[in-house]
């Protein structure tokens, strides 16, 4: 992975991430408070392979649905309505500062739809760590970050922090840094633990060494205490082993601080189990019976049969009315739906002459119309 870069959103003009004693700061401040963090980006180099980012139901079950467009600014041809039932591939990602729209391929239960879609608040999992201060502060693999766009051959993402200040970081890394991971780093549990005595923590590379990162901890923030010298203490912070959902614990840090800046504790309140914010995976939609398309066939969208080809379809489907050579269909989980007033259509000849009984409460199997 190429060296990652990071920027930080500040709460006040002139505030610096590190004190004047910083050794080679890895983070630089935004010009003014309230300004957008992301700067205009450079075009994606033609010599670098295009980046494709993927999400599936396990990563995007809490994400809102989105419309699929015929072109970057075209009409709606479909809607991905249930992210918990669909897999999505994003490409032609927007350059920072350009309209936030990207190419999309959405698939669910054999249905594949291709087009464009708004690229807004999309989160992706990190396959590998992104260093902020190498060896001391990093975003761990397994964290899910909102990708803002591209700049050159880098993917730029927003990172919420567990600090009172800075509250947001921006990091950039190559495309290969994103993808399914083997899990996220967890900070070992204490005791002993420590909390800050004052309003700021200066993290150092070694006992009495240079400051490499500075932050204002939240009032209830606790750190794991590893060891102490006469003047310094070795601490670490980040997701604790008992944290079920990462939440804002998307930064891990490890370093030395002034011993006088801490108070030591034997226990900390682990707090209530963190829930998912009310965004649980939805139940499956009952289906009263379906039929099957055995060979991939063009998927069309229109009002009265036929229409524009927007993708392809195979697998289990539910059938509705017939119009000429075409039959209206949906997938059994309805993860991808047509725009209002339209239907998805396939050639009637592509539908197998069989009926698959439903797998729910004994609802009778219905022959295709």
Structure description:
Among the domains are: 73 residues; 60 residues. The chain has 369 residues and is mostly beta strands. The longest helix is centred in the first third of the chain and has 4 residues. Helix content is 1%, strand content 42%.
Chart the SSEs and their pairings.
Layout: E1 5-9, E2 27-29, E3 53-55, H1 57-60, E4 66-69, E5 76-80, E6 87-91, E7 101-108, E8 111-118, E9 123-125, E10 130-133, E11 137-139, E12 144-151, E13 154-160, E14 163-165, E15 168-173, E16 193-196, E17 201-204, E18 211-217, E19 223-228, E20 232-237, E21 252-258, E22 262-265, E23 291-302, E24 308-323, E25 326-331, E26 336-337, E27 343-347
Parallel strand pairs: 1-2
Antiparallel strand pairs: 1-15, 3-6, 4-5, 5-26, 6-7, 7-8, 8-24, 9-12, 10-11, 11-21, 12-13, 13-15, 14-18, 16-19, 16-22, 17-18, 19-20, 20-21, 23-24, 23-27, 24-25, 25-27
Fraction of residues in β-strands: 35-45%
- Please estimate the helix content: under 10%
Average pLDDT across residues? 75
Q: Structural class given helices, strands, pairing?
A: mainly beta
The quaternary organization reads as single chain
Succession of helices and strands: EEEHEEEEEEEEEEEEEEEEEEEEEEEE
Distance between the termini: 55 Å
């Amino acid at each position: 992975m190429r060296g990652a870069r990071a920027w930080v959103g500040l709460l006040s003009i002139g505030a610096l991430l590190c004190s004047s004693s910083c050794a080679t700061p890895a983070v630089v401040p935004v010009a003014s408070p309230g300004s957008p963090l992301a700067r205009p980006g450079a075009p994606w180099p033609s010599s670098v392979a295009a980046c494709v980012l993927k999400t599936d139901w396990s990563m995007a079950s809490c994400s809102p649905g989105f419309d699929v467009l015929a072109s970057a600014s075209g009409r709606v041809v479909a809607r991905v309505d249930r992210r918990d039932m669909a897999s999505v591939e994003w490409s032609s990602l927007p350059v920072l500062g350009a309209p936030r729209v990207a190419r999309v391929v959405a698939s669910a239960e054999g249905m594949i739809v291709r087009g464009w879609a708004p690229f807004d608040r999309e989160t992706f999992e990190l396959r590998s760590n992104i260093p902020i201060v190498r060896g001391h502060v990093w975003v761990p693999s397994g964290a899910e970050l909102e990708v803002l766009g591209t700049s050159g051959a880098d993917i730029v993402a927003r990172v919420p922090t567990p600090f009172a200040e800075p509250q947001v970081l921006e990091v950039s890394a190559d495309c290969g840094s994103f993808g399914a991971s083997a899990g996220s780093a967890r900070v070992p549990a204490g005791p002993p633990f420590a909390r800050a005595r004052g309003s700021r923590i200066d993290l150092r590379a070694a006992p009495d060494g240079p400051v490499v990162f500075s932050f204002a901890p939240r009032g209830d923030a606790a750190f794991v205490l590893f060891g102490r010298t006469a003047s310094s203490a070795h601490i670490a912070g980040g997701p604790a082993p008992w944290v079920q959902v990462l939440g804002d614990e998307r930064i891990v840090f490890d370093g030395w601080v002034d011993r006088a800046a801490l108070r030591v504790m034997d226990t900390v309140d682990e707090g209530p189990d963190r829930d998912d914010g009310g965004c649980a995976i939805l139940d499956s939609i009952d289906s009263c019976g379906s039929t099957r398309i055995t060979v991939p066939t063009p998927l069309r969208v229109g009002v009265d049969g036929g229409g524009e080809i927007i993708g392809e379809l195979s697998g289990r489907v539910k059938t509705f009315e017939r119009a000429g050579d075409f039959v209206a269909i949906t997938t059994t989980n309805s993860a991808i739906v047509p725009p209002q007033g339209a239907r998805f259509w396939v050639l009637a000849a592509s539908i197998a002459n069989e009926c698959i009984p439903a797998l729910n409460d004994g609802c009778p199997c219905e022959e295709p119309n």
